[in-house]
Amino acid sequence: MDEESARVAAELLGSVEEVAKRLGMDEKRVRKILEDFSERVVIPKDFKKRDYFKFARDIIQLHDATLASQHIKDSEYARLWKEFEEKEAHAKMGKI
């Protein structure tokens, strides 16, 4: 994560407009950064509107959001999630 992206991340929770205003940044630039994040750790509140973003609150929410996103089209990414579930996640969640 570069410095500009870190500044945006530090301002979440909020809409693209709110984050841009707090940082004095262009909304298009903030949207681009948040969309890039949405492939990793940030999820939109509404997957259709994609105007309000937040961090995933746990691994389950991150899993569901990233695999449900129309922006993720990487079969290797899906395979890695499946491997994680089979080898680690299910066993650990069963102990909770």
Under CATH, the topology of the largest domain is which? Arc Repressor Mutant, subunit A
Instruction: Find the structural class using helix and strand composition.
Output: mainly alpha
The CATH architecture term of the largest domain is: Orthogonal Bundle
Low-confidence stretches: none
Identify the CATH class of the largest domain: Mainly Alpha
Q: What count of domains describes the coordinates?
A: 2
Beta-strand level of the residues, as a percent range?
5-15%
Mean pLDDT: 79
Number of helices: 5
Kindly state the percentage of residues in helix: 55-70%
Major beta sheet, strand line-up: 1-3-2
Could you give the distance between the termini?
Answer: 32 Å
Explain the overall architecture:
By secondary structure, this protein is mostly helical. The chain has two domains: 3-55, Arc Repressor Mutant, subunit A, CATH 1.10.10; 59-94, no CATH class. The protein contains five helices and three strands, in the order H-E-H-H-E-E-H-H. A three-stranded antiparallel beta sheet has the order 1-3-2. The chain starts with a helix and ends with a helix.
Topology overview:
Elements: H1 3-10, E1 14-15, H2 16-23, H3 27-37, E2 42-44, E3 52-55, H4 59-68, H5 75-94
Antiparallel strand pairs: 1-3, 2-3
Helix pairs in contact: 2-3
List keywords for this structure.
96 residues; mainly alpha; Arc Repressor Mutant, subunit A; 2 domains; elongated
Please outline what is shown here.
The chain has 96 residues and is mainly alpha-helical. The protein is 59% helix and 9% strand. It has two domains: 3-55, Arc Repressor Mutant, subunit A (Orthogonal Bundle); 59-94, no CATH class.
